[in-house]
């Protein structure tokens, strides 16, 4: 596979004839490098406290990034059209992996102070794989394949949607049971996005959303840890010595960071924010680099999303268009939800920050998705 990647990559980068979008790729690698630096700064104190090695998390993340880059280059060169044939198989594999997390000895569970066991990982020696991340890519490919077929049919037979609905519902239920409510929201947003792109009126989608509010309320109110998270979100200072500690510390990090930040890896959040290198890594980033650094990061994210949006809307292949749009929706949703959580606009959901949060499964799936996106937006695919 390495030889294939090297040969194809050299062919694509002939001076003046490259078919890849340089701005998109450069932005991806800037964010990747920046994210690794921020993750290291956020994790060094925790790593020293737990493992007596300030570079412990840096080394593990670097290994995952190296592995992920191999997949990034592969999917940037592999004809993405062939993924359509694997759409149904990918869903079955994703469902199988989601079931494995509940099997003792294979799946790994973690208890939380909310009194709930979370079944989200499969143990792979010293590393862990999060099947819900794999499921996101499988769902994207499957939905792109499904909506392409519907688009090409003059009179779509909606009876054929029974099997796809069962597969999608199975994935959603398994992820909910883990539980991973944030990932479930991501997948639901992608489904709604595809329906909107297919031509379903936005007003009708809004009505569906309003009608679904009672169900969302039940899913939150009847599940103890979700209800507690909403209570913490509404009044974090009331719970500042236990469940609200993360959010209150995040607020302080934003305040202490000021315009230009403090000395690296030395602020309050670095010392007292629990696992500051994971979901709340943005708080320590702002504490280090201030509001100006935060604006630069936002600019890079917007550059990535808008450049990709500009290219995806020019893609002529329906499957490529839907797949590229789905990747944009899921990445944009992750960025928005994580930022809203860390700033207290949204209740805590456990959504990681792409490029920056520590986590092998997350960076692997992000780079695979972006590799596919780079492939879809090649010049020959958008008519340039």
TrEMBL record:
Q: What membrane topology term does the record carry?
A: Multi-pass membrane protein
Quote the subcellular location field of this record: Membrane
E.C. number(s) listed in UniProt: 2.4.99.28
Chief location = membrane
Question: Transmembrane region positions?
Answer: 20-41, 62-80, 86-106, 161-181, 187-220, 289-309, 321-349, 355-376
A Pfam cross-reference name: FTSW_RODA_SPOVE
Q: What keyword terms does UniProt attach to this protein?
A: Cell shape, Glycosyltransferase, Membrane, Peptidoglycan synthesis, Transferase, Transmembrane, Transmembrane helix
Query: What InterPro entries has UniProt attached to this entry?
Result: Cell_cycle_FtsW-rel_CS, FtsW/RodA
Q: Which reaction does it catalyse?
A: [GlcNAc-(1->4)-Mur2Ac(oyl-L-Ala-gamma-D-Glu-L-Lys-D-Ala-D-Ala)](n)-di-trans,octa-cis-undecaprenyl diphosphate + beta-D-GlcNAc-(1->4)-Mur2Ac(oyl-L-Ala-gamma-D-Glu-L-Lys-D-Ala-D-Ala)-di-trans,octa-cis-undecaprenyl diphosphate = [GlcNAc-(1->4)-Mur2Ac(oyl-L-Ala-gamma-D-Glu-L-Lys-D-Ala-D-Ala)](n+1)-di-trans,octa-cis-undecaprenyl diphosphate + di-trans,octa-cis-undecaprenyl diphosphate + H(+)
Family the UniProt entry places it in: Belongs to the SEDS family. FtsW subfamily.
Q: Which PANTHER family match?
A: CELL CYCLE PROTEIN, PEPTIDOGLYCAN GLYCOSYLTRANSFERASE FTSW-RELATED
What is the designated name of this protein? Probable peptidoglycan glycosyltransferase FtsW
Q: Which organism is it from?
A: Leptospira ainlahdjerensis
């Amino acid at each position: 596979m390495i030889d294939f990647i090297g040969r194809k990559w050299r062919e694509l980068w002939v001076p003046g004839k490259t078919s890849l979008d340089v701005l998109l790729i450069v932005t991806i690698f800037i964010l990747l490098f920046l994210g690794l630096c921020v993750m290291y700064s956020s994790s060094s104190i925790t790593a020293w406290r737990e493992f007596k090695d300030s570079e412990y998390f840096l080394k593990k993340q670097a290994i995952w990034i190296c592995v992920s880059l191999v997949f990034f280059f592969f999917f940037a060169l592999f004809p993405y059209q062939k993924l359509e044939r694997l759409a149904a198989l990918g869903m079955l594999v994703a469902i199988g992996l989601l079931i494995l997390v509940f099997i003792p000895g294979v799946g790994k569970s973690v208890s939380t102070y909310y009194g709930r066991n979370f079944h989200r990982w499969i143990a792979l020696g010293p590393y862990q794989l999060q099947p819900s991340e794999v499921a996101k890519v499988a769902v994207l490919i499957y939905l792109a394949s499904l909506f392409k077929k519907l688009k090409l049919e003059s009179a779509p037979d909606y009876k054929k949607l029974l099997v796809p609905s069962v597969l999608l519902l199975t994935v959603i239920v398994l992820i909910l049971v883990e539980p991973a409510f944030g990932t479930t929201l991501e997948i639901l947003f992608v489904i709604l996005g595809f329906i909107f792109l297919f031509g379903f009126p936005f007003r009708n989608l809004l009505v569906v959303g309003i009608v679904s509010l009672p169900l969302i309320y039940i899913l939150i109110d009847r599940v103890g840890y979700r209800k507690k998270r909403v209570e913490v979100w509404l009044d974090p200072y009331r719970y500042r010595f236990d469940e609200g500690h993360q959010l209150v510390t995040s607020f302080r990090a934003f305040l202490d960071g000021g315009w230009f930040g403090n000395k690296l890896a030395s602020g309050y959040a670095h010392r007292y924010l629990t696992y500051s290198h994971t979901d709340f890594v943005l708080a320590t980033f702002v504490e280090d680099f201030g509001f100006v650094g935060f604006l630069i990061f936002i600019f890079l994210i917007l550059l990535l999303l808008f450049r990709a949006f500009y290219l995806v809307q020019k893609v002529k292949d329906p499957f490529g268009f839907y797949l590229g749009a789905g990747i944009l929706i899921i990445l944009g949703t992750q960025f928005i939800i994580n930022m809203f959580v860390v700033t207290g606009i949204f209740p805590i959901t456990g959504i990681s920050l792409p490029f920056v949060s520590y986590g092998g499964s997350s960076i692997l799936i992000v780079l695979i998705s972006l590799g596919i996106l780079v492939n879809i937006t090649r010049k020959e695919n958008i008519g340039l």
